[in-house]
Write a structure and sequence with these properties.
By secondary structure, the chain is of the alpha+beta class. The chain has 2 domains: 374 residues, no CATH class; 51 residues, no CATH class. It has 9 helices and 21 strands. A 5-stranded mixed β-sheet has the order 4-3-2-1-5, covered by helices on one side. Helix 8 runs parallel beside helix 9. The two termini are 23 Å apart. 47% of the residues are buried.
Length: 441
């Protein structure tokens, strides 16, 4: 028999904590809405798992290690390996330095509060296990996501080329617009939802904390269903996807945009609930594996090109938010920043790093796959094409720390996401992840 429990805890950082997601410092001055850790725990015949979503830009390895240490201490060895832990990718959540020595008192408080909140949510969820049924639906409709890498008429690839740019030819590729929805039914009602949507969480900007569109999406669903049910978003592979419609010359950055997109996705999901169908949940199978992610090894010519930029481009400070589109606009500060990163890539990178991949299979129709870092959507497409499960949920920014994982062919084309840095991935990384993920089921 399937039993499900759920819980959510606030993880909003104190005022003054730096925000993650941009290249410049952004010490927060308050919050628009709270950040949460949300848990849906499941048990079948004594086999336990849980899906955990955190309103963070990412989870770094030291936080994963802290989670494991506390979960092992509170629940005993073994449960941590059964959990799926992922970040939503809000760019207005706390920046948590990996090395404890680099955290100030406020940042350490935020770090510890998140770990404590995750443990509280797990405890409450597992203490609240009750009989439940699962129902699912998927729709191929993502009108708020756009491939952000474009072929220019010059033959180059540019990330975020700007609104109504006459030099744009077409998007680099298409993407998987599937939205998967899993509903937990208990006591005659929908008790929680897990939704799988591909889009970046970078609509708000500035220095005020927000869960971005993920939070406004959850609030809109709760409002219409008239209950404060946990609504989890697992961010599908969206390293090359964001919300910018370059053909619309409107303001697409600000809290209003998080509200618009969140409510738009909520409407899609709410309209799909009438088509929910039962999912047989007679067993839970959890499989973990490790994949070796190779790192970039720059040529002497690439290093020389980076040094030339530092020698010739003036050192002009960038005012305001420092974002990826500054590279496309050839802002001097951006050119110099990425040139320094290239030199660091050559001097400081190690050959590879290991990432944990987890597959959680529930019955014959439902499975969750985890991906590290910010994988391009083509990785999710490749996995879904060969997945035997009708409902294949894919969670990026899960289980292990990594960076952008572009498709192999993208490296020669350029763009922001393939810029080298310390321990950035090699062109072979995407294929390695796809192969390991499919072997893990």
């Amino acid at each position: 028999m399937l039993k499900v429990g759920y819980a959510q805890e606030i993880i909003t950082p104190p005022t003054g904590v730096d925000l993650a997601g941009y290249f410049n410092e952004r010490f927060n001055v308050g919050y628009y809405d709270d950040l949460y850790v949300k848990v849906v725990a499941m048990e079948i015949d004594g086999r336990r798992t849980a899906v955990v979503s955190l309103d963070l830009c990412y989870v770094k390895n030291d936080m994963f290690a802290a989670f494991k240490s506390r979960v092992d201490a509170e629940f005993g060895a073994g449960l941590y390996e059964n959990l799926l832990i992922s970040a939503t990718h809000t760019h207005t959540g706390p920046k948590l330095e990996e090395a404890a020595a680099n955290r100030n008192e406020l940042t350490q408080l935020a770090f510890d509060s998140i770990v404590d909140a995750l443990i509280r949510a797990l405890k409450r969820a597992f203490m609240s296990l009750q009989p439940a049924e699962l129902e699912a639906v998927k729709v191929y409709n993502n009108p708020y996501g756009f491939v952000r890498r474009y072929w220019m008429k010059s033959g180059d690839i540019v990330t975020n080329p700007g609104w109504c740019n006459p030099n744009v030819d077409k998007p680099e590729c298409d993407f998987d617009r599937t939205i998967n929805v899993l509903a937990v039914k208990q006591n005659g009602r929908i008790a929680s939802l897990i939704c799988n949507i591909a889009n970046h969480g970078d609509t708000v900007g500035g220095n005020i904390v927000s869960a971005d569109w993920y939070g406004r999406f959850a609030q809109a669903v709760q409002y219409e269903l008239q209950t404060s049910l946990p609504v989890l978003v697992l961010d599908d592979a969206s390293g090359n996807i964001n919300h910018f419609d370059i053909h619309q010359k409107i303001n697409q950055t600000g809290y209003h945009e998080a509200v618009r997109i969140g409510r738009g996705y909520a409407r899609i999901v709410l309209d799909a609930l009438k088509d929910l169908e039962p999912v047989a949940a007679d067993r839970i199978v959890i499989k973990n594996t490790s994949v070796t992610i190779p790192h970039r090894n720059l040529s002497d010519e690439e290093v020389a090109a980076a040094q030339h930029i530092l020698d010739t481009v003036p050192d002009i400070k960038k005012e305001g938010d420092f974002e990826s589109q500054d590279l496309a606009n050839k802002v001097p500060a951006a050119l110099r920043y990425f040139a320094r990163r290239a030199l660091d890539c050559k001097a400081k990178s190690v050959p590879s790093h290991e990432c944990r991949l987890t597959a959680i299979e529930i019955g014959d129709a439902l499975a969750f796959f985890t991906l590290p870092g910010e994988p391009f959507n083509g990785i999710a497409q490749a996995i879904r094409e060969k997945s035997p499960f009708k409902y294949t949920f894919i969670a990026e920014l899960a289980q292990s720390q990594s960076g952008y994982v572009p498709m192999k062919e993208c490296f020669a084309r350029g763009g922001y996401e393939v810029q080298p840095g310390i321990d950035t991935v090699a062109p072979e990384a995407a294929d390695a992840i796809i192969e390991a993920s499919l072997k893990n089921i």
